[in-house]
Give the backbone structure.
Amino acid sequence: MYNLVVADFYKLRKSMVIKILFGITSLSSIAMALMAYLIPQGKISSSLTGIGFMFSDINMVSILGAVIAGVFICGDFENKTIHDAISTGFNRGTVIISKVIVYFCSIGLILLPYAIVTIIALSTGFEFSMGSVAIGFLNMLTADTMAVFSTSTIGQLLITMLVLTIVYMAQLSICVPLAFILKKQVYVVAIYYGLSILSGQLMLLADSSSIFNQIFTRTPFGGNHAFLTLDTVASDILKALGVSFTFIILIIIVTYTLFRKAEIK
């Protein structure tokens, strides 16, 4: 498996796609922070919050995370890389895990600009707002605005950001079985983006149904897992971490079960 991971990391480092996606999230994170700063200042209209959310991490990662799965997993079916790995003796479970490792690292990479911009923005002490409830790093930016920074605060912020990134990885892990089974980039992107939109509607359903809420909170899409801030208590952070890892493991098992007997053409 080590050789597969190293080979995939090499392809990732040489890939123009990941560089372009990193550039997109870098520009988007800056645009998000600027709009969140200018809106409460009254320098731009609050009616532009929709555009601000378009640049937010939850929106960008829903699209770009699925694109990465399409490029690096579906692409390896198209160029026969996965076929060659299996034919040379690697079992399918090993292939899946190696892809998951590199895939999650690539998600962390494209989310890095949001983490850096959020830290820089919060350290300024300025007010940031989008006028409504936000998710992910944008939620951190608006909820923790004007927070007093100290060594312990920075440490807590970094831990919270790391857990939030793992929550995103767990959400995007659904793209793994989609990519291994469908093998088509456009299907993976379209289906996952549709699921991400559906998850937003399911949050509303969870608010009105206690039974469904109990089920939904046990996935990385539900509960407060994507709403972590400096005020989040340790038990909720650990819960988000536990739910995310459990979900990832289940997705890997599902992927292996489906891919184990799938025909490779």
The chain has one domain: 2-259. Residues 2-259 form one domain. The first helix runs from residue 2 to 14. DSSP finds twelve helices and no strands in the chain.
